[in-house]
Every structure is written in structure tokens, then in C-alpha cells.
Amino acid sequence: MLANLKCPRKGLVGPWGHQYPNEGDPGPAVDWLTEALRWWDYWLKDIDTGIDLPRVISSI
User: Is the pLDDT of residue 47 over 90?
Assistant: First the structure.
């Protein structure tokens, strides 16, 4: 899905079901709200949060 986008994009991939990553089974749990805030601060507020990491991050 990320390969054909022509805009800044990131993927957070994990073994979660259709719940929020901090609640989904099986773990590991991910503090996705913190990651989302880091992304918004970087792209919307121009704050260097260190979120400019590799395109896909996997917890698997």
C-alpha cells in the first residue's frame, strides 16, 4: 500500500487484530498515540521529533 503513494508516508506494522495497537492481541503493545503525536508535530508543526525513521517499522 505504501509503495504507490506519492507523498510522505510511514508504516507501523504489527501483529495486531482490528483494535488499537496498544490494546490488540497478540502483543507486543505499541504506544501508537505517542508515535502519532510525534508524526503530527514533525509534519504539521515543523518540530524535529526524530520521527523521520525508515519508511516501514515492524514489531514482528
Answer: yes
